[in-house]
Task: structure prediction
Amino acid sequence: MLLSMSADFLLSLAAVALSTGAMQLFLYPQMALKLGPVEYGEVLTVVGVVNVVTLSLGNNLTSSRLVRQHVYEDSGEAGDFQALLVVSSVASVGIVAVYCALSGMALAEGVAVAVFALTTVLKSYYLVAFRIVIDYRKNLVANVFLCVGYVVGAFFLLGLFSWPWSFTLANIACIAYVMKASRIAFEPFRITRHFRSTFKSYSYLVGGGLLGNLSTYLDRFIVNPILGVASVSTYTVATFFPKGLSLALAPLAGVLLSYVSQGRISFDKRKFILVNVAILVFCFVLLAFSVTLGRWITQFFYPTIYDEAEPYIALAAVGVALGIGNSYNGTVVLAVAAPVWQTVIPAASLAIYFGLSVALASSIGLWGVCYASVASNALRFFVNLALGFWAIGKREAPVEEQLC
Result:
């Protein structure tokens, strides 16, 4: 089992390295060169809104499918998730459309952003097909299509169409392969007796995911009004390498959830503590890469903005590295603790991050955003650690002890 899981980790890492690498190393730098710092900062803010909404709704529908899959298998029923996908898609497009209208975006570009949002939700959910029946080789092929789409978008579409179509092309390429390689897009549109409990679980996950993704992109929404659009570009470039690693390593948490939700991995208190120690060591390794190799890579891809971003790279990397750690120990908490915690913990973390960022950014600029990221992510890591330890202990306790 360990060998199989290791192989899936490597396949998942290769898959996301291709797609995220193409986006971070080709599409974003090309956008920065073509648009300039101010317009690029505006585009990053829009992309942040789209990602907060679509990843919260699409990725957490994926997590809900994995966590609840055994319920449908045990009862021999199929359904509910196509309906939830429609709800997620309509909600995503609606929220993004409202944002585009309120921001005064031109109609043509607003439509392009809405299509970008829709295809992102569909792509995020459809990829669960290769995790229900674990097949990370097909997941790798799907990400090859995504990678090719980003590259074509970066070097061909950016000069011909508005920027959202570059993302949409990549999404469509990935969706087309998934539809050919699986039946997930053609599952029955049916409401079952499990819909209510599944929707409740999904709602908690969406709430937590929305708050978690909002905290990831909140820096853009805080920095823009307080420090200006140019500072959004500076901070984004400062976190370019560690956030690239974060995106690259996020699917590994998905592999972990796949195995835990299917019962292939179980945790006791000792294993949970050892895993968290390993996660912290891993975070320090990522931090070391970010402040050494990461500086050179950032300067290579963002030569026009690097000098402004360089002072913030080390501290910003600490916050991002701790955030990566949260994605892993949070996955275990998702599997062992009540779903409501997936909303409570991100809400508390977001409140701390927002409060500290606003207070400190007004006085010490981008340094304040960096300190707020470190503080909120560190607190969240140790809260996840305590909650997971408690939940596993409660699950291990004899029934008589639990009733006392």
